[in-house]
Amino acid sequence: MLSLLGGIGVLTGDPGFAQEAPCANGTAQVQPEDTLSRIANRCDVSESALLAANPSVDGSGDLQVGTTLRLRSDNGQGQRLGDRLNHFGREANDAVGRIAGQVGSSAQDLLDKNPDLKSRLQGLGQRFGLGDEADTPSVTLTPDQGPAGSTVTLSATGLPKSEALMIGVGAPNTAFQVLQSGRTSDKGTLEADVKVPERLGGTRLVFVLRNGDAIKLNSKPFQVVP
């Protein structure tokens, strides 16, 4: 159900506080610590209008600092079929992840213990030509707490093979900033060492793996300690 689109970002500017950027020409630039609600208030539009105009955005956690959002849909056109199928795939993955978290398990463990559910999801993906029988993507971080400036190791599995992606970080449910780029192995895995930023607001951070609209993986929260 997954494919990657190339993209590399660069971390720039002061990540400490969001700046109130103007909204012009029907667009808005995502600022540090932005949320859909903050952008909607700043640009005098509804959150639903932002979501409709930007099919790759499903929530505030999909916002990338420095990118530009459309404020309204072009000519009121709906999403393309491909966008809708990708959206469905992400919703399915998110649902499995939420259920796994509620029972204290990982998404892959949950699917392994429920082969009928795993088979149905794989069959649906094959039916629409969205993927193969690869493992459900997952990412872990070690350690899960530490001071600013320390190093965290991200380990991901179940990704497309030999593909580029962005590694970013942000507070939960806010815009993320790109830290560095990475590339998956020929087995669809990734291991990368990243440094905890000096300041991003708050004491909980989420590391993300992104590439276009297809890969949207979030780590469990990392606790910043003195």
Structure description:
- This protein is an alpha+beta fold and 226 residues long.
- The chain is built from five helices and twelve strands.
- Helix content is 25%, strand content 25%.
- The strands form three sheets. Strands 5, 7, 8, 10, 11 and 12 form a six-stranded mixed sheet that branches. The protein has a three-stranded antiparallel sheet with strand order 1-2-3.
- Helix 3 crosses helix 4.
- The termini are far apart.
- The N terminus is likely disordered.
Kindly, what is the distance between the CA atoms of the first and last residues, rounded to a whole number of angstroms?
41 Å
Tally the helices: 5
Structure classification: alpha+beta
CATH superfamily of the domain at 23-76: LysM domain
Number of strands: 12
Describe the oligomeric state of these chains in a short phrase: single chain
Mean pLDDT: 77
Q: The CATH topology of the domain at 23-76 is what? A: Membrane-bound Lytic Murein Transglycosylase D, Chain A
CA-atom Rg in angstroms: 18 Å
CATH class of the domain at 23-76: Alpha Beta
**Approximately what portion of the residues adopt beta-strand conformation?**
25-35%
Helix content class: 25-40%
In one word, what is the shape? globular
Order of helices and strands: EEHHEHHHEEEEEEEEE
Regions with little confidence, pLDDT below 50 for 5+ residues: 1-19, 126-134
CATH-level-2 architecture of the domain at 23-76: Roll
Q: State the major sheet.
A: 6 strands, mixed
